[in-house]
Amino acid sequence: MAVHSTETAANTPSVALGPATALSCRECGERFDLGPLFACATCFGPLEVAYDLPSGDPESLKKQIEAGPDNIWRYAPLLPVPTDVADKPNLNPGFTKLVKADRLAAELGVTGGLYVKDDSGNPTHSFKDRVVAIAVEAARAFGFTTLSCSSTGNLAGAVGAAARRAGFKSCVFIPHDLEAGKVVMAAVYGGDLVGIEGNYDDVNRFCSELIGDPLGEGWGFVNVNLRPYYGEGSKTLAYEICEQLGWQLPDQLVIPIASGSQLTKIDKGLKELIALGLVEDKPYKIFGAQAEGCSPVSTAFKAGHDVVRPQKPKTIAKSLAIGNPADGPYVLDIARRTGGAVEDVNDEQIVDAIKLLARTEGIFAETAGGVTVGVTKKLIEDGLLDPSLTTVVLNTGDGLKTLDAVAPTSGPTATIRPNLDAFRAAGLAG
Ligand SMILES: *Cc1c(COP(=O)(O)O)cnc(C)c1O
What we know:
Layout: E1 20-25, E2 31-32, E3 47-51, H1 58-66, E4 97-100, H2 102-108, E5 114-118, H3 128-142, E6 146-150, H4 154-166, E7 169-175, H5 180-188, E8 192-196, H6 200-211, E9 219-221, H7 227-232, H8 235-244, E10 252-256, H9 261-275, E11 285-291, H10 296-303, H11 328-338, E12 342-345, H12 347-361, H13 367-381, E13 391-395, H14 420-426
Parallel strand pairs: 5-13, 6-7, 6-9, 7-8, 10-11, 10-13, 11-12
Antiparallel strand pairs: 1-2, 1-3, 4-5
Helix pairs in contact: 2-12, 3-4, 4-5, 8-9, 9-11, 10-11, 12-13
The structure holds pyridoxal-5'-phosphate (PLP).
């Protein structure tokens, strides 16, 4: 694999990714130089980015962040990106709305403050723009020329768009049977889009093989060999939520789980904010949300298991349809350590929740948002989520990409001839 080192003075790392200093193994702690590595050479554990984070006065760091751009680069001092990242061509995602959802709160009986973090507002309408933006900077630093990924749909579109904007070639891989909205979004930016006859887990296995083959030479797979960097993009959700709450931790968060990367990195981001003194330390609970038709993590959680048994996905929440989630065991740890839980809802409950969120707050979520809202409702009914506490629910994607989920039950109230008599007869006036 090509790792191009740039000309630097002796004893400085060959790649400059801001405060990032190394990759460290999440299992055994061994450290490695920054590079396109994703598994520990000693124990095969997953790697994550280690930092030398700012150590100065928290108030001046807060001011520096607040004076930054209205996108994820305001948090550049806490991310593995070059210090001049904001000047580079990138899609600049983030700083999406945190909506105070009072009508939804009333419907669900939440009294402690309910918020929806609405990531449908990102450039390609899902949270994936955050993780891709970071992976693009790593790909640049390591000299890759092609961006690639294994995707459940949203990632393929995010990579295609980011590749065009940043000047990379791209070749992305998806299961062949995704929603039309996802396929079109992934194709429209150009670059190669390959449908694989299989599910996401087959796509991911294929990509792992491709990385080890000359066919994949010079390719940065954002969620495979760039995964440690990619994952860090999800920390920005934690940073934004706390900043938007006035630099405070929420009490409870409900987060969707596909591979589990997002959930684990939101936890990492919250812990960093506490360590940096940017928020006051207090307990928070993290709840994971899955679809019943692909619920390997919630099944393990409920059974009290530490290991996650792979499942064969069958759900309308295709963006979350990962049957063998790489970060599953870490999600279990976090849910248990924080006093949260992992729960799932079925397809009908997902559709009902999409419509509930749309009808109460004017937010049209994709199926993954139906999963988090549906799980929130269920957790409250089961007494696991405390309605008297501040709660943030994530909507990670846009309903326009998963129209099929609600199309059969969402149509015109009436179809009439263009005259007043016809409208009167329809009984809608007054
Ligand atoms: C990818 C994705 C997620 C979560 O992905 P993880 O693999 O768990 O990080 C959540 N919502 C949507 C809409 C997604 O596309």
